[in-house]
């Protein structure tokens, strides 16, 4: 099972409820979720997890699966929640983890997936990207990610927010990123029936997971809702929690 770092983003251990948030490939949870976490109420302890070689998590050279990540998140959340009601929200790859958790939730009573689907891309595409990153490094992903991640005009409106994510991408461990690509190549949650309330949401301008693949659409948002529209994302997540947690 991969070793994943957990980082507190908002609230504290005395909060009556816990929200665990997950990142997209190439991002750290704090960079992606911090603004959104600040928009959530004080009765939520918000904790983010990082992929291997991303953010606060150490690199790995060992292969892992989306199920392995879900198991590590489930175990970490069980320790953090310590019996308190808990929910999960994840973006893209973090959302893929969410689909697995919705079927085998452990401590989670509700799940939100953002810019994610039960299958993302194609195995060939993910294997090609893994090979490319092993050859050229994650810095070579910056140009393409700037187009895939954000709705048109976002980088002009919020150059510091978007720029910080793209700068952090350069620091992601190459092999860990490649292994995450290979995990997505093997990922398929189409046979996983949800046993807790699941909200599937995404952006109207997302070209990776398109609006027809989700149930709730955030207007003017691309592939990273928590950074592109933190207020609307926080409201969406909170509404699902209030209804189900």
From TrEMBL:
InterPro entries tied to this protein: AB_hydrolase_1, AB_hydrolase_fold, Carboxylesterase_BioH
Domain AB hydrolase-1: 27-235
SUPFAM superfamilies hit by this protein: alpha/beta-Hydrolases
Full protein name: AB hydrolase-1 domain-containing protein
Organism, scientific name: Nocardioides aromaticivorans
């Amino acid at each position: 099972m991969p070793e994943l770092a957990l980082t507190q983003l908002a609230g504290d251990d005395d909060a009556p409820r816990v929200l665990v948030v997950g990142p997209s490939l190439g991002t750290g949870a704090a960079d992606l979720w911090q603004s959104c976490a600040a928009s959530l109420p004080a009765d939520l302890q918000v904790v983010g997890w990082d992929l291997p070689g991303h953010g606060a998590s150490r690199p790995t050279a060992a292969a892992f699966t989306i199920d392995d990540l879900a198991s590590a998140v489930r175990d970490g959340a069980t320790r953090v929640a310590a019996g308190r009601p808990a929910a999960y929200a994840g973006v893209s790859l973090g959302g893929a983890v969410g689909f697995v958790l919705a079927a085998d939730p452990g401590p989670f009573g509700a799940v939100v997936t953002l810019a994610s689907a039960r299958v993302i891309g194609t195995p060939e595409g993910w294997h090609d990207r893994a090979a490319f990153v092993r050859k050229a490094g994650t810095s070579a992903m910056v140009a393409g990610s700037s187009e895939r991640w954000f709705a048109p005009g976002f980088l002009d409106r919020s150059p510091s927010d978007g720029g910080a994510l793209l700068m952090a991408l350069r620091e992601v461990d190459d092999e860990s990123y490649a292994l995450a690509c290979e995990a997505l190549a093997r990922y398929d949650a189409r046979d996983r029936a949800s046993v807790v309330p699941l909200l599937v949401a995404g952006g109207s301008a997302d070209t990776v997971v398109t609006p027809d693949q989700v149930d709730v659409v955030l207007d003017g948002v691309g592939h990273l809702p928590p950074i592109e529209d933190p207020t609307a994302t926080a409201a969406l997540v909170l509404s699902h929690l209030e209804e189900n947690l």
